[in-house]
Design brief:
Number of helices: 8
CATH superfamily: 2-enoyl-CoA Hydratase, Chain A, domain 1
Number of strands: 12
Low-confidence stretches: 1-10
CATH topology: 2-enoyl-CoA Hydratase, Chain A, domain 1
Order of helices and strands: EEEEHEEHHEEHEEHHEHEH
Radius of gyration: 16 Å
CATH architecture: Alpha-Beta Complex
Distance between the termini: 35 Å
């Protein structure tokens, strides 16, 4: 069930809550917070579809000058655990291709968003969740954030653009190390290698501060 409250002033404050995400508007900045009953924020087919619709609506607002930034975040333990492997295991070949394209479309929409997109990351940021963070313009991590693409340990590899974005960000050699060794990278190392731009105790508050500097 979805509850909504909208205002149309220049300095609006409103909130939307759905089973897949919550959306909070604060001072012309939108905070899109991933949500799931098990708190892992897995990027299921349903959640990807819901996020695509939300991002499309936000893009329209940004193009009308109603947003100065978009912040994407999770909860204290998970930004996102990535794709739901149990769901993936049941897909046929054509269904898997369609799933890959759905994820790619979401990442492309975030990558091409008309105002800055900031990932505010706490806890685990894994697999497809890391692809989501990589599609953002700026990444702020809490000290306990952990990053990884664990697909190689399971015999799979992301199809959502991470294999392209990560090498561009941290270099091919370091990206290959993360992918092939299924490496888990803590926040301090992520900052050192350029995977994140900043570490902050409260990454959402830091994201708001960064968004204010974008004016």
């Amino acid at each position: 069930m979805q509850t909504e409250s909208f205002t149309h002033s220049a300095d609006r404050q409103s909130r939307t809550v759905t089973e897949h995400y919550s959306l909070l508007y604060e001072h012309n900045c939108a905070v899109l917070q991933l949500a799931s009953p098990d708190i892992t924020n897995k990027l299921t087919l349903a959640r990807i579809s819901a996020l695509r619709h939300a991002v499309a609506a936000l893009q329209a607002e940004a193009e009308r000058g109603l947003l100065r930034a978009l912040i994407i975040t999770g909860n204290e333990k998970f930004f996102s655990a990535g794709a739901d492997l149990n769901e993936i295991a049941l897909l046929t070949g054509p269904e898997a291709l369609a799933f890959s394209r759905q994820g790619q479309a979401l990442m492309q929409a975030i990558d091409g968003f008309p105002v800055p997109v900031v990932a505010a990351i706490r806890g685990y940021c894994m697999g497809g969740g890391m692809d989501l963070a990589l599609a953002c313009d700026y990444r702020i991590a809490a000290p306990d954030a952990i990053f990884g693409h664990r697909g190689a340990s399971l015999g799979i590899m992301t199809g959502w653009g991470g294999t392209q974005r990560l090498p561009r960000l941290i270099g091919k050699a370091r990206a290959m190390q993360m992918f092939l060794l299924a490496e888990m990278v803590p926040a301090d190392e992520a900052l050192k290698i350029g995977l994140v731009n900043q570490i902050a105790a409260d990454p959402v508050a830091a994201a708001h501060a960064f968004s204010g500097s974008c004016l």
